[in-house]
Design a protein that fits this description.
502 residues; alpha/beta; Rossmann fold; seven-stranded mixed sheet; 12% strand
C-alpha cells in the first residue's frame, strides 16, 4: 500500500482518496502474497519429505532392526527404496496439487489445510503400498514405508503450520499483503469489503471501491472510499499499486472484456464473484476469499521465481560484501568520527517499493547541519526539476569527498539489502520531498525494490536531466532480468574503480 501523504494529488477524486486511512503502509516490505509460487511451494515440500525419509531411515535402523522378524536394511537395496521414495514423492505432489495446497490464493482455515495435508500423505501412501503389492518386491521393508508415511505427515504438518503462523504475523503488520479493490458499490461489494477488512489473515489490504461505468455509487458504501470509475483503472492501478480487482457487480459483456484487456496491460489480476460471468469462467477453477467463491478472469504472469533468486542473490552478495568490507568500514567510521563533529552515519527516511518508508544508512559525508543549509544553495543546483546536485558543494567534508568519489559512503546500505528494504540493483530510493512532486507516470519507478546501483548510475551518473533519470529507471522496471542485474553490477564495479562519484 502506498504511503498516501507522499503521493502526488492529480485530481479531485485522487485528493478525496488521500483521506482513506493507510494505517500500516510504512511497514510494508514486499508486494504480493510473499514469495510463494506453486514451484517454490513444491520445492519446499520436496525438501521436507526428503528430511522425513531420512528420519524414517534413522528410526528404522535405531529402533526396528533389533527385532528378529524385522527386515534389515542393506546398501544393495537402497536403489529400490529410493525408487519407491521417488514414486511416493511424485504421488504426494500430484495429490497435494489436486487438493489445491499449492494454489497462490489458498485462503482457508489452518485446520482444513492440515486435514488436506494428512489426507494427501495417506493417499500417496496408499499408492506406494499398492505399487509394492503389484510389483511383488518382497525386499521392500513394510515398516520403513509406514515410517515414511507417518514422518511425512508430521513434518509437513509442522512445516505448513509454521509457514502459516509466519504469514499471519506478516499480514498483521501489513507485510506481504495484496492491495485489492472491489469493482462495484452494491450490497455485495460492501459485504465483501467488510469481510476482507475484518480478516487480516486473508493477506489482503482493502484499498477502496471502483464504481461501474456510468453508475453513481450507492448509499451502501462510504463515498470517501470510492476511488473513481472503472475507466480510470490504469491511473488507479499506478497510483495505489493495485494487485487485484474483485468484480462484485455485473457489467455488460463488452465492459468486462475491455476491463480484462486493460488489466492485462497494467499487470492487475481480475477475479469475479462466481456466477456473474458464466461464459467467461466456464473452465476457471473456483477459489475462495473467505466465504466468497471467486472465479479467475485474468491472472498476470508472475515472476516470483526470478524475484526469489534475486532476493537470494541479494542476501548472499551483501553478506559476503559486509564480511569482506568490515575492516574498511571500521576504518571509515573512525576517520569520519575524528575528521568532523557529528554522527558517523547519516540516516535518512527514503521511499521504497510501493511507497514504503524506510531508514537508509550511509556514512556521513557532509557537515552535521547540511540539510538546513540546502536552501541557501538552491540557486547553485545543477540538476533540473526534482533532483538536487551542486558541484564542489561546500557542505561536503574533505573525507566525504573521497568517500563519495569511490562510493564508499554507501557501504552501510548493504544492511538495508539484508533487511529486505533495498536490492543490489534497482532505482535509487528517493526522499519524500521528491516523491511529492512526482507525476503519475513517475510512480513506475516505485514498483520495484530500490537498489544500491542501477541503469542511471552506470549510464548517466553525471547527467543532470530528470527526464533521463526517469527514462532509465522506467526502462529497468519494464525490462528487468537477472542477467540485466549482473551486467549492471559488473559495470558498477568499473565505475567505482574509476572513481566517478561526486
Amino acid at each position: 500500500m502506498a504511503t498516501s501523504e507522499y503521493l502526488p494529488k492529480h485530481d479531485v477524486t485522487a485528493q478525496r482518496t488521500q483521506q482513506f486511512p493507510r494505517r500500516i503502509a510504512q511497514r510494508r516490505r514486499v508486494a504480493g502474497p510473499g514469495l510463494d509460487s506453486k514451484l517454490l511451494l513444491m520445492l519446499g515440500d520436496v525438501v521436507v519429505v526428503t528430511l522425513a525419509f531420512a528420519i524414517a531411515l534413522v528410526i528404522k535402523v535405531k529402533f526396528f532392526e533389533s527385532f528378529a522378524d524385522s527386515k534389515k536394511l542393506s546398501i544393495d537395496d537402497m536403489p529400490v527404496y529410493l525408487a519407491f521414495f521417488g514414486w511416493f514423492l511424485l504421488a504426494l505432489l500430484l495429490v497435494s496439487r489436486r487438493y489445491g495446497l499449492y494454489s497462490p490464493f489458498f485462503v482457508t482455515s489452518g485446520r482444513r489445510e492440515l486435514r488436506l495435508t494428512v489426507q494427501a500423505v495417506l493417499n500417496a501412501g496408499l499408492l506406494l503400498c499398492g505399487s509394492i503389492y503389484m510389483t511383488h518386491w518382497d525386499i521392500a521393508s513394510r515398516s520403513l514405508m509406514i515410517l515414511l508415511i507417518c514422518t511425512s505427515a508430521i513434518t509437513l504438518s509442522i512445516w505448513r503450520t509454521g509457514k502459516r503462523l509466519s504469514r499471519y504475523r506478516h499480514y498483521e503488520k501489513g507485510i506481504d499483503t495484496r492491495n485489492v479493490v472491489i469493482l462495484g458499490t452494491n450490497y455485495l461489494s460492501h459485504a465483501l469489503s467488510q469481510h476482507i477488512v475484518a480478516n487480516y489473515r486473508f493477506g489482503y489490504q482493502f484499498i477502496g471501491y471502483i464504481s461501474p461505468s456510468g453508475q453513481d455509487a450507492s448509499a451502501v458504501v462510504n463515498h470517501t472510499e470510492v476511488l473513481g470509475g472503472v475507466e480510470r483503472l490504469r491511473q488507479l492501478a499506478r497510483q495505489h499499486f493495485i494487485d487485484e480487482v474483485v468484480v462484485a457487480q455485473a457489467l455488460q459483456a463488452e465492459q468486462i472484456v475491455a476491463l480484462i484487456e486493460e488489466a492485462r496491460e497494467v499487470g492487475v489480476d481480475i477475479r469475479a464473484i462466481s456466477g456473474l460471468y458464466g461464459d467467461l469462467t466456464t473452465n476457471a477453477s473456483i477459489e475462495y476469499l473467505g466465504i466468497y467463491p471467486l472465479a479467475s478472469l485474468h491472472r498476470r504472469k508472475a515472476r516470483i521465481l526470478e524475484l526469489f533468486f534475486k532476493r537470494c542473490f541479494d542476501i548472499l552478495f551483501s553478506s559476503v560484501a559486509l564480511i569482506a568490507a568490515f575492516p574498511i568500514m571500521l576504518l571509515i567510521a573512525l576517520v569520519v568520527r575524528l575528521s568532523s563533529p557529528g554522527p558517523i552515519f547519516y540516516v535518512s527516511e527514503r521511499i521504497g517499493k510501493r511507497g514504503r518508508v524506510f531508514r537508509c544508512f550511509k556514512f556521513r559525508t557532509m557537515v552535521k547541519d547540511a540539510e538546513l543549509r540546502q536552501k541557501d544553495l538552491a540557486a547553485m543546483n545543477e540538476r533540473d526539476l526534482i533532483l538536487f546536485k551542486v558541484a564542489n558543494d561546500p557542505r561536503i567534508t574533505a573525507v566525504g569527498r573521497i568517500l563519495r568519489k569511490y562510493s564508499l559512503d554507501e557501504l552501510p546500505q548493504f544492511f538495508n539489502v539484508l533487511r529486505g528494504e533495498m536490492s543490489l540493483v534497482g532505482p535509487r530510493p528517493p526522499i519524500a520531498s521528491e516523491v511529492e512532486k512526482y507525476e503519475l507516470e513517475h510512480l513506475r519507478r516505485l514498483e520495484v525494490m530500490p537498489g544500491l546501483t542501477g541503469l542511471w548510475q552506470v549510464n548517466a551518473r553525471q547527467d543532470g536531466s530528470f527526464a533521463r533519470y526517469i527514462e532509465l529507471d522506467t526502462a529497468y522496471v519494464e525490462n528487468w532480468t537477472l542477467w540485466l542485474d549482473i551486467k549492471i553490477l559488473m559495470r558498477t564495479a568499473h565505475v567505482v574503480v574509476r572513481g566517478t562519484g561526486t
